[in-house]
Design goal:
single chain; alpha+beta; Elongation Factor Tu (Ef-tu), domain 3; Threonyl-tRNA Synthetase, Chain A, domain 2; 2 domains; six-stranded antiparallel β-barrel; five-stranded antiparallel β-sheet; 4 helices; 39% strand; globular
Length: 237
Amino acid sequence: MTELLFRADPYLTRAEAEVTGHTPEGGVMLGASLFYPTGGGQPGDSGWLEWGAHRMAVATAVKHEGGVALVPGDLTGLPPIGVRVTQVLDWERRHRHMRVHTALHLLSVVIPLPVTGGQIGAERGRLDFDMPEPPEDVAEIEDRLNRLIDQDLAVTESWITDEELAANPGLVKTMSVRPPVGQGRVRLVRIGTPELQIDLQPCGGTHVARTAEIGRVALGKIEKKGRQNRRVTLELV
């Protein structure tokens, strides 16, 4: 199993690790990964690996047999198994993912409808809602969203057991992506405090530590996707 450094500290930008293997597709497996692997609507991280005089670009990271595989961005050669490498994260891209991801959590608060899909990018993100009728005032939704961001709310995590999640199905907002179970526990992301909670839902992605770090966001047009689904897009301003 790969140690998930991004889970322990999403603000970590450099870390050493040992190369533990190569995948049949040409990916690099490490004992500990700084890079978030594609999942839950969030893209995999990019950056590079350094060892000695060598450097390998990392185009993305993906899940592989219970670990994380780094996908090379060029053909300069893979680091040998057993060598220690320095991982360097494309921090600007990751941080924008963190900002967009946290903003989407807040979007699910100001639009309290079931979420049928979602996608995170470095510039914008979107949620699809089970929304038969369009909202009457998009500007009011955008204003409420930015007012929540301006409150500089804390974003923290906690863990519950699989059984506790099963007993509280209302925690799951997404209809299309189910939280991973089977490992005994599930990670919850909270916005606000237990006493003044704005949002609490299962999530394995990376988020900013406080909402003010998101900055101002703007909503795009709301698109109809199917009989009852509508897509709401937000972008960093």
